[in-house]
């Protein structure tokens, strides 16, 4: 009897513990599926009739931050002014730099309950996946009706066009290949921002000899070094080959990739040693404080320099294209598309919202608050700050290319690239890195 | 010994009701009835999703678009061949072992300290338990500041004139560095940082368990041993430790569960680390599934993780069960 009681006690305990254990394992992967449960509630309201000024509209994004949600509200305000009868649902999903939102979106698309429109990156990332799955409606007639074909540069439209059909409306533009530098440090040692890798290494030698870290680097998120690497790749192989690599038209065993990777590793010798523990803004902090001279980062860094660090553009800090990338603009653009499963009022409302998203007033209100620039060619530079004006000038004349870290490529390839990068910076094994890229591109087609 | 067995059993919190045979039927029905809601919830949200995860791991669903075609064991082959997953397995073994040892030893030590009838016992108990109340993400961020070699505790060491400050937070060294498959086998030094943070967080939990266990040891037992001439050491190893066995079982099972699930701490603190020296399967699974959208491979990682948990824990439980029965 004693033995029995004890045994039962342990059995009960073990069952309880196993339950707890399994719960832990199960829920981590159950996230995406449980999302569909939530979405069923929100889409229930999108069933009514009418044309353009009734029913509801659901806008799906991962803009939950202070600036980005305020900016998104500008589009919503303008839409509500034009269509006061429509109930707008702002279905923004926070967390994971958009990965949570993408998981929720994916389960909703599968369940056949898409939102009215959703945020996605221009390029061959998830936008291409949705197009290939037949989940998106082409917007060629909307573009024609609104005259947008000439309002956006062709090079940008190319990033949202598949098989001759345009699938999305771009709302903002950010740049990935920017070299940020401390102007005072550069002036002190009579340096100019390097336009070639040779110049970079010459500058770096000078800075290093004066005890200043030439290139500040962060890599806590595992994508920061990948940005640097892709910019070095662009600067090494040039626009045409880079574009072919990113769209899978040239194999990754191309000698240019090896050459660029070697240059990249050489640049790594001029960085701060603790990059693995720094977030991107901390690396820019080193530049702001003058401890480091340069940093390669997307142009979201300008918000850090001006707002957080309180520096003056063109006085305290400056910017230039990364070495060898003059005339090329590594574009990161948020775009919105029209899910093909929408019908009736839902579709009309979504189309009307896309018109607001593409409008010049909407984009001005949105981008000035978000700290990005409007991708429209007729956008007025004087609405933006010093950096925005210079970025806009480059954007209007430069060739646009995709960038691997910001949702522009097959996400499976990007993850594999970042994993290979983690190995590369510690093993310095370039041939292993190149073959990892090759097999990543085979497993995750780039176009 | 027999007497002690009886005492533990009757005091065990999960001991079942022994008497009242005639009313068993009603009680059973009532028990089933009250269990139904949690059985349904567990069935849907735990066991169904485990089944679903297992199912997905055998499909070709490795992009955004769902593709449920059968893919055999290819996802498993892919993850076991990957450098990252091999590193994860190595890290997991070392992390789990040292984490459990650290928590158990430190927890027992703290429990014995607190059990010494000290003043303000409640205060110390709370202090030691408090780290558990802090979210793992906050713990990770704080410890990453403290242990970062250029900004953290090393500045204090510098101030004391120590020249060779520890650099292992960012180290990619692996000891003893034996070549296994495509990775270096051994203990990754950078893991020390993660171990410090997680042991700091969880040893209070072990302390609480052990403290309850220590209090449950009947005073007569110790008294009898003392009369028989046992000294403090003998008392500890022959009376206290054996009496704490059930507690240790519970602690090991709970700590192992928490160590295999570690995600938030790593995500906030070191991330996967250079060359994946601090990566663990849960983090890899998150990246694979939700960043890379390779759902089938992510599901394969989750399934392997589940099987590993079962492999580690089931024999332990069966073993404990057998020993208990043989008594």
Tell me the number of structural domains of chain A: 2
Helix fraction bin of chain A: 40-55%
Helix/strand/pairing category of chain A? alpha/beta
The number of helices of chain A is 17
CATH topology of the largest domain in chain B: MetI-like fold
CATH class of the largest domain in chain B: Mainly Alpha
The proportion of residues in beta strands of chain B is: under 5%
CATH architectural arrangement of the largest domain in chain A:
3-Layer(aba) Sandwich
| H/E element sequence of chain B | HHHHHHHEEHHHHHHH
* CA distance, first residue to last residue of chain A: 69 Å
Beta-strand content of chain A: 5-15%
Largest interface: A-B, 66 and 73 residues
Mean pLDDT of chain A: 87
Spans of chain B of at least 5 consecutive residues whose pLDDT stays below 50 are: 1-15
GO biological process, one term (chain B): transmembrane transport
Subcellular location (chain B): Cell membrane
Pfam families (chain B): BPD_transp_1
Family (chain B): Belongs to the binding-protein-dependent transport system permease family.
Summarize this structure briefly:
Chain B: InterPro entries: ABC_transporter_permease, MetI-like, MetI-like_sf. The complex is a heterodimer of chains A (447) and B (327). By secondary structure, chain A is of the alpha/beta class.
């Amino acid at each position: 009897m004693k033995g029995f009681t004890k045994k039962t006690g342990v059995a009960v305990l073990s069952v309880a513990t196993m339950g707890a254990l399994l719960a832990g394992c199960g829920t981590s992967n159950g996230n995406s599926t449980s999302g569909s449960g939530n979405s069923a509630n929100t889409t229930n309201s999108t069933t009514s009739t009418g044309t353009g000024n009734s029913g509801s509209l659901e806008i799906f994004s991962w803009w939950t931050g202070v600036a980005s949600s305020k900016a998104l509200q500008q589009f919503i305000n303008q839409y509500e002014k034009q269509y006061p009868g429509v109930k707008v649902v702002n279905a923004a999903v926070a967390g994971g730099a958009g990965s949570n939102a993408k998981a929720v979106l994916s389960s909703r698309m599968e369940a056949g309950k898409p939102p009215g429109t959703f945020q996605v990156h221009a390029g061959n990332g998830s936008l291409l996946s949705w197009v290939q799955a037949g989940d998106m409606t082409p917007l060629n007639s909307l573009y024609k009706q609104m005259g947008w074909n000439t309002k956006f540069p062709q090079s940008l439209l190319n990033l949202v066009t598949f098989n001759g059909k345009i699938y999305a409306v771009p709302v903002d533009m950010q740049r990935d290949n920017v070299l940020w530098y401390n102007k005072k440090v550069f002036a002190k040692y009579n340096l100019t921002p390097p336009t070639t890798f040779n110049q970079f290494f010459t500058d770096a030698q000078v800075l290093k000899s004066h005890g200043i870290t030439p290139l500040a680097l962060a890599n806590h998120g595992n994508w920061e070094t990948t940005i640097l690497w892709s910019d070095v790749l662009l600067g090494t192989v040039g626009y045409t080959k880079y574009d072919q690599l990113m769209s899978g038209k040239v194999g990754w065993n191309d000698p240019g990739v090896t050459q660029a990777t070697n240059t990249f590793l050489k640049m790594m010798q001029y960085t701060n040693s603790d990059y693995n523990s720094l977030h991107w803004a901390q690396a820019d902090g080193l530049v702001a404080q003058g401890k480091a001279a340069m940093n390669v980062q997307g142009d979201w860094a300008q918000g850090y320099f001006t707002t957080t660090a309180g520096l003056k553009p063109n006085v305290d800090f400056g910017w230039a294209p990364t070495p060898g990338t003059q005339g090329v603009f590594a574009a990161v653009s948020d775009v919105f598309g029209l899910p093909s499963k929408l019908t009736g009022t839902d579709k009309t409302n979504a189309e009307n919202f896309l018109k607001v998203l593409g409008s010049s007033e909407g984009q001005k209100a949105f981008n000035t608050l978000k700290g990005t620039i409007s991708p429209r060619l007729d956008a007025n530079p004087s609405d933006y700050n010093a950096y925005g004006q210079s970025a806009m000038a480059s954007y209007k004349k430069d060739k646009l290319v995709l960038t691997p870290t910001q949702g522009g490529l097959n996400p499976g390839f990007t993850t594999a690239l970042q994993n290979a990068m983690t190995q590369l910076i510690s093993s310095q094994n370039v041939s292993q890195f190149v073959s990892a890229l090759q097999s990543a591109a085979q497993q995750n087609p780039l176009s | 010994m027999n007497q002690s067995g009886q005492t533990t059993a009757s005091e065990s919190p999960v001991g079942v009701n022994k008497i009242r045979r005639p009313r068993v039927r009603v009680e059973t029905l009532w028990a089933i009835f009250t269990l139904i809601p949690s059985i349904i919830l567990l069935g849907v949200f735990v066991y169904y999703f485990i089944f679903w995860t297992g199912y997905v791991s055998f499909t070709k669903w490795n992009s955004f678009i769902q593709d449920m075609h059968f893919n055999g064991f290819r996802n498993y082959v892919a993850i076991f061949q990957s450098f990252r997953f091999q590193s994860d397995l190595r890290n997991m073994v070392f992390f789990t072992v040292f984490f459990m040892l650290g928590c158990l030893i430190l927890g027992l030590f703290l429990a014995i300290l607190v059990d010494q009838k000290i003043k303000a016992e409640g205060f110390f108990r709370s202090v030691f338990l408090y780290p558990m109340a802090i979210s793992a993400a906050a713990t990770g961020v704080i410890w990453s500041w403290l242990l970062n070699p250029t900004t953290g505790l090393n500045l204090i060491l510098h101030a004391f004139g120590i020249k060779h400050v520890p650099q292992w937070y960012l180290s990619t060294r692996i000891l003893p560095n034996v070549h296994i498959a495509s990775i270096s086998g051994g203990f990754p030094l950078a893991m020390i940082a993660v171990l410090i943070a997680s042991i700091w967080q969880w040893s209070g939990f072990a302390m609480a368990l052990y403290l309850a266990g220590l209090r449950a040891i009947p005073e007569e037992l110790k008294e009898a041993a003392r009369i028989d001439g046992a000294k403090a050491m003998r008392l500890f190893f022959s009376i206290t430790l054996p009496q704490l066995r059930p507690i240790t079982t519970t602690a090991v099972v709970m700590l192992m569960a928490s160590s295999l699930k570690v995600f938030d701490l790593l995500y906030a603190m070191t991330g996967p680390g250079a060359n994946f020296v601090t990566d663990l399967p849960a983090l890899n699974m998150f990246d694979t599934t939700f960043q890379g959208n390779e759902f089938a491979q992510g599901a394969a990682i989750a399934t392997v993780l589940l099987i590993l948990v079962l492999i580690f824990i089931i024999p332990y439980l069966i073993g404990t069960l057998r020993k208990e029965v043989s008594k």
